[in-house]
Design brief:
The N terminus is likely disordered. The protein has 11 helices and 14 strands. α2 packs parallel to α3. It is globular. The longest helix has 13 residues. The strands form 2 sheets. Strands 9-10-11-8-7-6-5-4-3-12-13-14 form a 12-stranded mixed sheet. β4, α3 and β5 form a beta-alpha-beta unit. It has a single domain, classed as TIM Barrel, CATH 3.20.20.70. It is of the alpha/beta class and 352 residues long. The structure holds S-adenosylmethionine (SAM) and iron/sulfur cluster.
Length: 352
Amino acid sequence: MAVALRCQGAERNDCISRIWKGVLVPQFTDAYARKFYYLRLSVTDVCNFRCTYCLPDGYKPQGTSNKSFLSLDEIRRVTRAFAAAGTEKVRLTGGEPTLRRDFVDIIAAVRENTAIRHIAVTTNGYRLARDVAQWRSAGLSALNVSIDSLDPRQFHAITGQDKFHQVMQGIDAAFAAGFTKVKVNTVLMRDLNHRSLTTFLDWIRCRPIQLRFIELMETGEGGAVFRRYHISGEVIRTQLLQQGWQLQVRTRSDGPAQVFRHPDYQGEIGLIMPYEKDFCASCNRLRVSAMGNLHLCLFGDGGVPLRDLLAADDQMPALQARIAISLGHKKQTHFLHQGNTGITQNLSFIGG
Ligand code: SAM
Ligand code: SF4
């Protein structure tokens, strides 16, 4: 049955992509009128790195040992439900998402949703050099690689893996495979890298890399690391502005970064400052964990189980209804300032 659309222009195109079996699916929206265009989907908790602020003792299975992560069909269904309700960007994360043997198939499954215009991955870069061309062929459109230091020894000390050169080769391979831009995530840490802006700027002067400093966030297991190493991104912002870098305007499915450009540099700098006032006002993203729980906030309490509604295609309306109702409980902001990290023991658990 045809649906009469009252919307026009770009809004009309959005409406058309939200029609499911003749019915217009409402855009996922919360009680504060925030619209959700962006899904971060964790596909595994497992990781092979031991970043000091995330998994300093390496990956350890949580809870029961016979758990299984979302299957390919479940990933297909959950992304279809989000796509039909206005999601236009999906980020695959983890743990280390690229450790999944079916990672290429996962990308292809997400790509089946034509409404999803951007498929991104956040990776430690371990499999990049070997596999990035395959990921691109399967439909991956954007890459975030985590690199906290450009000094190989410090990289090793932070990640527990002597893989700096392998990760760098991976970035070269990404450009060779046709990616025109690569984003690099750098967790800003007092005394470790907060005085290294010049080194990072030299690196991106002639490379189309958006280097994003992420403020270290407190997690349940990371209290001591947080107290020792957290420093505000303001220290970077001040230097950038003094050196003539200019803040750019965000688009609606962008992540949370403030992006700066400078005419002398091919690369860009991003700043992700979750401790800054009003950070949550522009929240446009939701998370689904590798166990199939919807998380309304990285630092929320509990999660809404979706897995019982991912078993068959005809559960889609019920799945969308559960997500839409849950959104009514999304809080206006996180409570990190009060030291409340919710259930997040470390970021590999929900996906950073
Ligand atoms: N393993 C992949 C990786 O490292 O890119 C994906 C998962 S990781 C949890 C996603 C991002 O979260 C990484 O860029 C990582 O540096 C960042 N991250 C992890 N723990 C963090 C914390 N406590 N504060 C800020 N960023 C963190
Ligand atoms: Fe693994 Fe990423 Fe966590 Fe590092 S930040 S331990 S690479 S999940």
